[in-house]
């Protein structure tokens, strides 16, 4: 008999698979104290939480029989995934359960924003009948700009088309061909901003998307456009939105999420053009049931010896295999991160080659980590070692792995190649005994770079003085060069310069570097 602990409130219908399983004893106690939780986990094989219970390292270490932790939702911030992995415990979540709920809530907010429904109802509650005050706009023929075209963005697009809206979407994994198949127009972020009558965001919150819709972005939008956020607080810079609505640049906003919650005293709530809800995107009976059901089935499947559908942490690898692979984990991710920062266009294919010591090893875990490194630029922590392949497939990216006898003189070599709709870029790295990871090839240039810290990648024409001009400019901006590597194929031809610097370049330094004679491209990245 397996014992499953549910320590947060969940839909009873959602956990029905557990309640009806003959070989499962389900313990439901959403009100236990921390001390009671530590005692309860000592005898359970699985546990399910939402956001209330904090599954810390301490909790995990008090659970010697625990095999799986289920999060009835998407985020796993309240679970110490590293501690779970170290103890051989699988962590699963339910990434699809609230897709429809959030898309429908976005449309409800969209229509309420267009027709001033909350404001008009509030006036009626005060016994005031003011029809002329709440003249709205129709959705028909309006342009809805969707930033983030994943599961929820696609569902919003389908519903918007049902209202005869014109849909333009931006997503780093979306290109013209994929957009055409989805029946929407593909645009750059700037094009979406410029064309949207209604702008809705559906991206994860990562460094790249934090304050994505800021003052600069809002100024590119039409005067009188409207903005919605039912995704994550922080994607929209709230102070900039406040000023834009107050000035009339933005006609109104609909927000389900805020950067800091609860947000009962937020300045945006003082503006009559703004409507808001208290993070209700996933708050439907069906969504609550779906996430609980998805996690329940995964738990039953794993306890009975099967595989789970939505794992979050690293799958089980034998200790012998782990000993062989673990030295290469860091290198694999570094190669993926590096290449993802320099490739242009929409990703279509990833090819990973292994040679030398890695010929006779199951390298699939390394490929997963490399793909994670590539995808995390746009998806952040939402992509992990386990779901990397599925996430890539969902984005239409093909993954291939190949073993090669060509070592180029190295004991071990990992080569990652990315093909986009614009170009193909390649990087190769090795693990030097006692010296750590090295990038030894970038495209067709031989280099020797430690893939850590702040790096500047410069493509230029091999001419006398190019290196000196770069060094002088960085010195003017108080940027110290730690190392410099230059690769070229022939004298006077194309070359690449990779600099390791002590700090991230700021201000107009990047622009001035790009303006130096004979330099064609400057890319800055941090590993």
Number of helices: 18
In whole angstroms, the N-to-C terminal distance is: 47 Å
- β-strand number: 22
Helix content: 25-40%
Instruction: Let me know the average pLDDT.
Output: 93
Overall form: globular
Radius of gyration based on Cα positions: 26 Å
The structure class reads: alpha/beta
Low-pLDDT parts are none
Main beta sheet, described?
7 strands, parallel
Strand order across the largest sheet: 8-7-6-9-10-11-12
What proportion of the residues form beta strands (DSSP E)? Answer: 15-25%
Please describe what this structure looks like.
This protein is α/β, with parallel strands linked by helices and 527 residues long. The chain is 32% helix and 24% strand. Strand 1 (2-6), helix 1 and strand 2 form a beta-alpha-beta unit. The strands form 4 sheets. Strands 8-7-6-9-10-11-12 form a 7-stranded parallel beta sheet, with helices on both faces. Strands 14-13-15-16-17-18 form a 6-stranded mixed beta sheet, covered by helices on one side. Strands 2-1-3-4-5 form a 5-stranded parallel beta sheet. The chain is built from 18 helices and 22 strands. It has helices at 16-19, 34-40, 57-61, 81-86, 99-115, 117-125, 151-162, 176-182, 189-195, 215-219, 238-247, 285-303, 319-325, 329-342, 364-379, 388-394, 466-476, 509-514, and strands spanning 2-6, 24-28, 46-49, 68-71, 90-92, 143-147, 166-170, 185-186, 198-201, 225-229, 250-255, 274-276, 347-356, 398-403, 412-420, 424-432, 436-442, 445-449, 454-461, 481-488, 494-501, 519-526.
């Amino acid at each position: 008999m397996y014992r499953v602990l549910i320590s947060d409130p969940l839909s009873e219908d959602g956990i029905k698979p557990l309640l009806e399983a003959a070989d499962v004893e389900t313990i439901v106690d959403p009100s236990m104290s921390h001390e009671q939780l530590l005692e309860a986990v000592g005898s359970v094989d699985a546990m399910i939480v939402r956001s209330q219970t904090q599954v810390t390292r301490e909790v995990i270490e008090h659970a010697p029989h625990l095999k799986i932790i289920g999060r009835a939702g998407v985020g796993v911030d309240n679970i110490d995934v590293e501690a779970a992995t170290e103890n051989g415990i699988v962590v699963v979540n339910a990434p699809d359960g609230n897709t429809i709920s959030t898309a429908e809530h976005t449309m409800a907010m969209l229509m309420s924003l267009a027709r001033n429904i909350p404001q008009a109802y509030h006036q009626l509650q005060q016994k005031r009948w003011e029809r002329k005050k709440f003249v709205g706009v129709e959705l028909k023929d309006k342009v809805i700009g969707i930033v983030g075209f994943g599961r929820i963005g696609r569902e919003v697009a389908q519903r918007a088309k049902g209202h005869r809206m014109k849909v333009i979407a931006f997503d780093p994994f979306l290109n013209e061909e994929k957009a055409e198949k989805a029946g929407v127009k593909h645009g750059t972020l700037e094009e979406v901003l410029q064309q949207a009558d209604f702008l809705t965001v559906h991206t994860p919150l990562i460094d790249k998307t934090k304050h994505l819709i800021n003052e600069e972005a809002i100024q590119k939008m039409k005067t009188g456009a409207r903005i919605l956020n039912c995704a994550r607080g922080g994607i929209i810079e709230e102070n900039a939105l406040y000023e834009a609505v107050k000035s009339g640049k933005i006609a109104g906003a609909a927000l389900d999420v805020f950067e800091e919650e609860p947000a009962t005293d937020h300045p945006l709530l003082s503006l009559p053009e703004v409507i808001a809800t208290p993070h209700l995107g996933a708050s439907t009976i069906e969504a609550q049931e779906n996430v609980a059901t998805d996690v329940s089935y995964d738990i039953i499947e794993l306890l009975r010896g099967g595989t789970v559908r939505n794992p979050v942490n690293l799958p089980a690898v034998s200790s012998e295999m782990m000993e062989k692979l673990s030295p290469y984990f860091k290198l694999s991710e570094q190669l993926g991160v590096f290449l993802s920062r320099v490739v242009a266009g929409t990703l279509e294919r990833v090819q990973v080659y292994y040679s030398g010591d890695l010929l006779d090893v199951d390298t699939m875990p390394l490929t997963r980590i490399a793909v994670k490194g590539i995808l995390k630029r746009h998806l952040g922590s939402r992509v992990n070692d386990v779901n990397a392949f599925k996430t890539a497939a969902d984005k239409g990216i093909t993954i291939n792995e190949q073993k090669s006898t060509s070592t180029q003189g190295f004991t071990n070599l990992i080569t990652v190649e990315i093909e986009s709709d614009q170009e193909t870029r390649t990087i190769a790295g090795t693990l030097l005994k006692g010296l750590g990871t090295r990038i030894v090839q970038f495209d067709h240039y031989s280099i020797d770079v430690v893939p850590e810290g702040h790096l500047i990648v410069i493509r230029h024409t091999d001419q006398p003085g190019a290196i000196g001009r770069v060094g002088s400019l960085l010195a003017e901006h108080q940027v110290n060069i730690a190392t410099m590597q230059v690769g070229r194929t022939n004298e006077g031809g194309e070359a690449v310069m990779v600099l390791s610097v002590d700090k991230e370049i700021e201000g107009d330094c990047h622009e001035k570097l790009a303006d130096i004679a004979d330099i064609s491209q400057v890319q800055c990245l941090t590993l």
